[in-house]
Request: fold
Amino acid sequence: MRLRRLLAAMFALVMVASLASAPARAQVEVDVNKGVVTPLPIAVPGFSGTETRSAGIGADIAKVVSADLERSGFFRPLDPNGFIERNLDVAVQPRFQDWRVVNAQALVNGAAAIGADGRLQVDFRVWDVFNEKQILGLQFVSTPENWRRVAHKISDAVYKQLTGEDGYFDTRIVFVAESGPKTNRIKQLEIMDQDGANPSYLTPTTYQAMTPRFSATDQEITYMALRADSARIYLFNIETARQETLGQFSGIVFAPRFSPDGGKVAFSVERNGNTDIYVMDLKTRASTRITSDPAIDTSPSFSPDGTKLAFNSDRGGGPQLYVMNVDGSGVHRISYAAGRYTTPVWSPKGDFIAFTKQTGGEFHIGVMRPDGSDERILTTSYLDEGPTWAPNGRVLMFSRETRGGGSRLWSVDISGRNLRAAPYAGAASDPAWSPLLK
Amino acid sequence: MTPRLIVRTALLAAAAATLAACASSKPPPPAPTPYTPPPAPAPAPPPYTPPPPVASGPTGPIPGSTQDFVINAGDRVYFDFDQFTLRDDAKGVLDRQAQWLQRYPQVMIRIEGNADERGTREYNLALGARRAESVRAYLASRGIAGGRISTISYGKERPIDAGTGEDAWARNRNAHTALTSGAR
Reply:
């Protein structure tokens, strides 16, 4: 366990005085809600460092920031080999003409230093190249081993400054790593940074682990473990690797998901072939049955204010999406177009519910408003399923399986653009996105 | 060209409902199995001599063994897409399973419900559970005591056919009866 990495890192944000001149035109920005977006050309030269180690970290930070921004689909980091101005000093203005020549519209430069106390300090600035002014200046302090999280926090700051949306780069993905033949599939939980770094297995191969979900505190996961003779839910602490079974039930237990405040888990329990939704209070460990009907009721997902649950039920015939109050009252259906709707997941922003839809032999990832309106289909394939939201409510990651092939992780923007494979090369499924790390 | 800035604001308020407790049930105790003493240790093998000519007579699975069950009763029944009701062919197999299980009352079983891959993970776990229950209820109606039967669903996680296409999917929509103890 990388405990050192997971201990509270010291991040100090210091606003750095701006070296500005009066703007000649509107400030550089990215409109993420426009129909067609040309990615903003941005330059992220290697951050400077006073000696070998800090210079190495500075170069690595710039590479991680560039990769984060490129992956978002809104930025096009320029090739550093073409840069004219070299050895930028973060304390002085860049030679803006040099950056206009390479067609950069924004510039991110920085400096990394390791102090006498061993701490890493990173200063960076974001510049509007055409208007020749600084639009952001911050400083982060941490341990040198934490340089990746510093880089992701810089990406989040740059992204937020230029798009107006919250970032999602200082996050992790927990998912199911798959191997072996389809008829005897090995399924283990694995966790990684959202850019694919630091992959680490969490569970053994002796049982199949699936459908992991993060709690709001990001140090705890809940997931379902399938063995030959049991299906149960575990609570798993990432820091200590301790896990405990959730409750005691005679049937199979599955589909767990935390409430937004981390105080409850909603899940499905099967009794005599019938599946209903339960909610457990994690303090008292008391469970309450929330649905009580002969239909399949599963895949519960809390609204971000914790008052409602979206879920999947076939009480109307085939699988559809429903919303109810957390006490089980007020059940109403929200999916209406032809097709089978499953895996509802409420956005952390509350404005959409993502889902899997099957029509005409194909699978789709889609979103709709919580009242069922404004349905948008974002993807189509042989088998797409199980979306998870990035904490900014813009990006969805999901599993995609090709016909006769294995499952891989993919992501797509809520606009349907920027569909791309996630940075994990192996067979994988059931991704879950952490909140922004603290 | 500088696009306009769009600012999104998040409207979130945290509210949590407190919920009352509810009891859960315990599983029924398993039915007692008759005591069978362990077999005597095998004697040391004799020195090799060429085998005598093979006498004619039935060769086949040992009565009461898993192989006997699989061959003579059938350990798997199949379902239509998204269905959990038993087809006539399934009932025929289950009738033979029930007869076999009555002949060997010490045998305990686990009914495993399975689904094809043309569905999502959690819904398929629930569907598999329905299929297992259909088989359990039918065997119970044929006199097999509930204490001998456990059920589970594997959803789409343990297909028997790794292929794609309707033939493979039809094979994967099944309920399997596993003999968990008491078989020879």
